[in-house]
């Protein structure tokens, strides 16, 4: 078994567009006004495994695949502001990284704003939870839309490229950090640990690692929408659960995350739609 997380990685966050939504949906005590929720993705450089993505954000595929009903309903429900140069693949090209250099993509869950860019990286293996994939894999039409899933965003060879988190070695994370179980060791070297944060979507996983610059870091996906909500322990508005479902599971993960933050205050936590995290992220200017 691997001995710990001493392998450090580099991590860069990217903004890939944003949606407009009532702030109250994300934090029940927030004012009733629209706010921008950025969709973040991350590029991780592992010393041996090379370049890895955590989620992929919005992309041109997202707009093509949601241009007709029923998938257009997704865009009506969640209006998105996006310019094509904000696609993760385009931002990486601007940094001199070609799509073919991405070796792995870690998908936290299958909502459209997280899997939007997968098809831009045809060479990458895909790492996701079997639990999450089994939940959506047969979904089409309205049922898919209601679950935030747009089937055409997944590449046709997905089944050939996928590896499941649950097939990786278990990592004794709770012994060290006091919370979260199960946690899986993505590469068997303790460097990237997949943390189960089910609830916002069934089988959602976050990613824990030690960043060269920021130290221990948890990309917690949508287990909370903001650090503010986490610090003050304010849950989303009840209406959010009417759309999203899984309130009990969400609350369980949210409480675990709160507890994790309390026990390990030095660990940086980045929720995928948090304004504070977005402020630290790379993005297209102007
Ligand atoms: Zn989501």
From TrEMBL:
Residues 38-273 form the Metallo-beta-lactamase domain. Keywords: Hydrolase, Metal-binding, Zinc. Its cofactor is Zn(2+). It comes from the Bacteria. One of its GO terms (molecular function) is hydrolase activity. SUPFAM superfamilies: Metallo-hydrolase/oxidoreductase. It holds the Pfam family Lactamase_B. PANTHER family: 102 KBASES UNSTABLE REGION: FROM 1 TO 119443, QUORUM-QUENCHING LACTONASE YTNP-RELATED-RELATED. Belongs to the metallo-beta-lactamase superfamily. This is Glyoxylase, beta-lactamase superfamily II. It comes from Planifilum fulgidum.
């Amino acid at each position: 078994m691997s001995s710990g997380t001493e392998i450090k990685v580099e991590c860069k966050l990217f903004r890939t567009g944003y949606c407009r939504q009532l702030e109250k949906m994300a934090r029940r005590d927030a004012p009733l006004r629209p706010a921008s929720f950025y969709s973040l993705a991350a590029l991780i450089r592992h010393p041996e495994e090379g370049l890895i993505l955590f989620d992929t954000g919005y992309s041109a595929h997202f707009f093509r695949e949601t241009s007709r009903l029923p998938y257009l309903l997704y865009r009506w429900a969640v209006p998105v502001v996006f310019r094509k140069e904000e696609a993760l693949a385009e931002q990486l090209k601007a940094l001199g990284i070609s799509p073919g250099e991405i070796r792995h993509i870690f998908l936290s869950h299958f909502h459209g704003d997280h899997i939007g860019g997968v098809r831009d990286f045809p060479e990458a293996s895909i790492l996701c939870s079997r639990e999450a994939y089994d939940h959506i894999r047969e979904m089409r039409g309205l049922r898919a839309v209601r679950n935030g899933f747009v089937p055409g965003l997944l590449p046709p060879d997905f089944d050939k490229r996928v590896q499941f988190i649950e097939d990786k070695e278990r990592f004794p994370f709770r012994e060290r950090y006091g919370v979260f179980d199960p946690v899986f060791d993505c590469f068997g070297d303790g460097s990237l640990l997949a943390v189960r944060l089910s609830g916002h979507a069934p089988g959602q996983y976050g990613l824990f690692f030690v960043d060269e610059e920021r130290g221990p870091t948890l990309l917690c996906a949508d287990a909370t929408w903001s650090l503010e909500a986490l610090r003050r322990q304010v849950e989303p508005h009840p209406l959010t659960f009417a759309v999203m479902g899984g309130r009990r599971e969400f609350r369980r993960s949210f409480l675990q995350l709160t507890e994790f933050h309390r026990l390990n205050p030095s660990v940086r936590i980045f929720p995928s739609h948090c304004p504070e995290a977005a402020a630290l992220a790379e993005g297209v200017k102007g």
